[in-house]
Structure formats: structure tokens, C-alpha cells
């Protein structure tokens, strides 16, 4: 095992989806370091399709307030203060989860609910926790990730590699992250709020900042599949 592998493995192991942040900002030069490193991610034909809108300071709070107003307005229209907002992503969301994918999704959800004190059957509690997505979990920054529409799913796949690289580079610099597909559900609002042209797809958001280690939502870790569950060897 090389020292480089050991370091990379430790960064992977330490990274997790942070759901509670301290309010202090990340210095701009640190954000630029993260993006520069993430930009080394591979992409088809070296297209590097990823583009970011990054909020800082008061703009994060303005966006947070506007996003929450958008979502709670949808919930009110649906007749419930805690109703989940309707999804309107630029790329279709999964049509379903089955088998081990459903099991992992459920396990992760129940770990989160247990950590924050939401019991089974508490639909109002689970809805309130879901709405934390649109408060950006209190993060001081959010990056909106977009890709050219003409590159379709393969541009999105390339951007997935960039998102992974972003979260790992951030972890290596002591910055916590959470990639949020929930923000992509509000794609029409994001296009309007940030003047994102129609020829770019909103893929996800990455909320980031310095972790609040005392926040209960940060007190659990998800499991990972074994290598034998991933590789189908052919010899």
C-alpha cells in the first residue's frame, strides 16, 4: 500500500453527507482550491462540462429564504404545511428503487430519522427533516452544478465525477459537503433565480461549509457494499 493510496482511502472514509453546518464562511481561496482540484476529474473527450454557481455571504441567505418560500408555497398549495414539494427536475429522477438499492435507501433514511429523533410513522417529522434540504442544512455556501443540455446523460455522468471529486477535495481541506438532488427538483425556480439558460441542465446542488460536529444529523454513517457485491469476475 502506497502512502498516496493510504491518504486517499482515509479521505474517502472520512467523507460523509453533512446535514448540520456552522455558519462561518469558507475562505474564497479554499473554495477555489476545491474547484481547481475537482476540475481534474475525467470527462468524455475532455469536455469538462461542469459549471458552478457558488453563493457566499448574504447571497446564500437570500437564496435560502427564496427557496424556502418557493417550497413552502408549493406545500401550502398542496394543502399541508409539511407536504413534500412537487419534483420538476431537468433530468428524470429514478422511476423506482428495488432490491438492494431500496434496502440501502431505507436504511439510510431510518438512520437519519433515528439520529434526529423522528420515529416510525411520524410523517410530519420526516417531512420537516426533508424540508431541511431547502434550508441547505444551514450551510454558508451552495454550489449549483449545471451541464450543457446537448451533452445529455453523458455530460451528467461526467459531472457526477466532478461532484465526487469536489466532495473529496473539500474533505481533504477540512470542508464538509452534501450533494443534494433535492435542489434539482426545483429546476424551474433555479433557472429563474440564477438566470440559468435553458441550454444548461441543473443537475444538483452541493451545500458546503464547516461541519457542526454536535448536530445530531451528523452522528451516523452509512454502510458500503462489499467488493464481492460489486464485482462480477470473468476469467
UniProtKB/TrEMBL annotation:
<dbReference type="GO" id="GO:0016491">
    <property type="term" value="F:oxidoreductase activity"/>
</dbReference>
<dbReference type="InterPro" id="IPR029479">
    <property type="entry name" value="Nitroreductase"/>
</dbReference>
<keyword id="KW-0285">Flavoprotein</keyword>
<dbReference type="InterPro" id="IPR000415">
    <property type="entry name" value="Nitroreductase-like"/>
</dbReference>
<dbReference type="Pfam" id="PF00881">
    <property type="entry name" value="Nitroreductase"/>
</dbReference>
<keyword id="KW-0560">Oxidoreductase</keyword>
<feature type="domain" description="Nitroreductase">
    <location>
        <begin position="13"/>
        <end position="210"/>
    </location>
</feature>
<protein>
    <submittedName>
        <fullName>Nitroreductase</fullName>
    </submittedName>
</protein>
<keyword id="KW-0288">FMN</keyword>
<dbReference type="InterPro" id="IPR050627">
    <property type="entry name" value="Nitroreductase/BluB"/>
</dbReference>
Amino acid at each position: 500500500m502506497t502512502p498516496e493510496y493510504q491518504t486517499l482511502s482515509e479521505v474517502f472514509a472520512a467523507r460523509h453527507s453533512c446535514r448540520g453546518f456552522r455558519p462561518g464562511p469558507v475562505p474564497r481561496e479554499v473554495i477555489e482550491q476545491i474547484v481547481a482540484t475537482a476540475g481534474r476529474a475525467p470527462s468524455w473527450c475532455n469536455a469538462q462540462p461542469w459549471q458552478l454557481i457558488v453563493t457566499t455571504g448574504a447571497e446564500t441567505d437570500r437564496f435560502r429564504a427564496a427557496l424556502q418560500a418557493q417550497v413552502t408555497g408549493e406545500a401550502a398549495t398542496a394543502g399541508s404545511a409539511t407536504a413534500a414539494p412537487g419534483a420538476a427536475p431537468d433530468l428524470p429522477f429514478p422511476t423506482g428503487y428495488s432490491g438492494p438499492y431500496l434496502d440501502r435507501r431505507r436504511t439510510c433514511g431510518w438512520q437519519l430519522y433515528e439520529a434526529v429523533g423522528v420515529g416510525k410513522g411520524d410523517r410530519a417529522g420526516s417531512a420537516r427533516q426533508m424540508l431541511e434540504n431547502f434550508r441547505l442544512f444551514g450551510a454558508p455556501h451552495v454550489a449549483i452544478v449545471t451541464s450543457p443540455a446537448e451533452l445529455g446523460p453523458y455530460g451528467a455522468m461526467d459531472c457526477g465525477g466532478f461532484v465526487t471529486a469536489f466532495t473529496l477535495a473539500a474533505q481533504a481541506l477540512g470542508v464538509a459537503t452534501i450533494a443534494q438532488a433535492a435542489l434539482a427538483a426545483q429546476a424551474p425556480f433555479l433557472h429563474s433565480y440564477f438566470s440559468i439558460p435553458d441550454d444548461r441542465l441543473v443537475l444538483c446542488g452541493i451545500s458546503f461549509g464547516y461541519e457542526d460536529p454536535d448536530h445530531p444529523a451528523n452522528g451516523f454513517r452509512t454502510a458500503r457494499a462489499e467488493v464481492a457485491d460489486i464485482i462480477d469476475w470473468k476469467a
